[in-house]
Amino acid sequence: MSLLVHSAAPDADGVVINITPQRAGWRYVGFRVVKLAAGKTYAGCEEAREACLVILTGKVDVTAGLQTFTALGDRADVFDGPATSVYIPADLPYRIRAIEDAEIALCTAPAAGSGSPRVIRPDQVGQEIRGEGANQRYVRNILDDKAEAEALLVVEVITPAGHWSSYPPHKHDRDAYPEETFLEETYYHRLSPPQGFAIQRVYTDDRLIDETMTVETGDAVMVPRGYHPVGTPYGYDLYYLNVMAGPRRQWVFKNDPAHAWIMKK
């Protein structure tokens, strides 16, 4: 099975991507993208799984249990600053109503149901710059390992045209803390202008996995294990939304030894 997942036409619920642990052949990460026309709704309840609803574009109301959060989201495009998101504990019913045409990413992972629903507003998103030169990218930490959650790690990254990201190639596929942690991961890609493309490779040391993919706007890539660099060509900025989860909620990675010298330049 290819690690590349294309968006489909919306189903009756508006779902265009649905990566389940069963589909991916792993244990932790779930990822969906829902498109809703103004006035339409999407309802769900993640059994034994926590969720982070990332409002990609548009404006929505979100009801989680007995709480309703109104008029969330103000992005016309995913490149327009950090997202507004909603954290929802496991087993809590929720409902999304689109005030205007909207796109929402639903990121899920196993959880017991601790904590309370809350809005994560753009000014609460930690921002940082990583890398130098053509390796520079802009990171928006929605749920990092210091934020309140049970398993989920959620981050947006903007990679400027002609740059590389998740580079040097790194992996996090061993449960060997403090040297490395095991985290499954999905990448959800968007490009500006939208007719562009990017390149992502996923490979392991033994090359049992070695897949190089052309990704376009709306594509997702599954990373069960291995290194996973991504690059975007001249003229096209790349956005991706990362979802990670595993047995330990910490991101500790290992660079590919063949390319680790780049960090010493």
Give me the secondary-structure topology.
Elements: E1 4-5, E2 15-19, H1 21-24, E3 30-36, E4 41-44, E5 49-64, E6 67-75, E7 84-88, E8 94-98, E9 102-110, E10 118-120, E11 126-130, E12 137-143, E13 153-159, E14 164-165, E15 170-171, E16 173-176, E17 180-182, E18 184-192, E19 197-203, E20 210-216, E21 220-223, E22 230-231, E23 237-245, E24 254-255
Antiparallel strand pairs: 1-21, 2-3, 3-9, 4-8, 5-6, 5-7, 5-8, 5-9, 7-10, 11-12, 12-13, 13-23, 14-22, 15-24, 16-17, 18-21, 18-23, 19-20, 19-22
Please report the distance between the alpha carbons of the first and last residues. 38 Å
Low-confidence stretches: none
Percent strand = over 45%
Mean pLDDT: 97
Which radius of gyration do the C-alpha atoms yield?
18 Å
Helix segment count? 1
Total strand segments: 24
In N-to-C order, the SSE pattern is: EEHEEEEEEEEEEEEEEEEEEEEEE
For the biggest sheet, the summary is:
9 strands, antiparallel
The secondary-structure class comes to: mainly beta
Helix content: under 10%
Quick one: overall form? globular
Keywords:
265 residues; mainly beta; 9-stranded antiparallel β-sheet; globular; glucuronate isomerase activity; 5-deoxyglucuronate isomerase; KduI/IolB_isomerase; RmlC_Cupin_sf
Can you walk through the features of this model?
Helix content is 2%, strand content 51%. It has 265 residues and is an all-beta fold. The strands form 5 sheets. Strands 2, 3, 4, 5, 6, 7, 8, 9 and 10 form a 9-stranded antiparallel beta sheet that branches. Strands 1-21-18-23-13-12-11 form a 7-stranded antiparallel beta sheet, with no helix packed on it. The model has no long low-confidence stretch (mean pLDDT 97). InterPro entries: Deoxy-glucuronate_isom_IolB, KduI/IolB_isomerase, RmlC-like_jellyroll, RmlC_Cupin_sf. One of its GO terms (molecular function) is glucuronate isomerase activity. Its EC number is 5.3.1.-. This is 5-deoxyglucuronate isomerase.
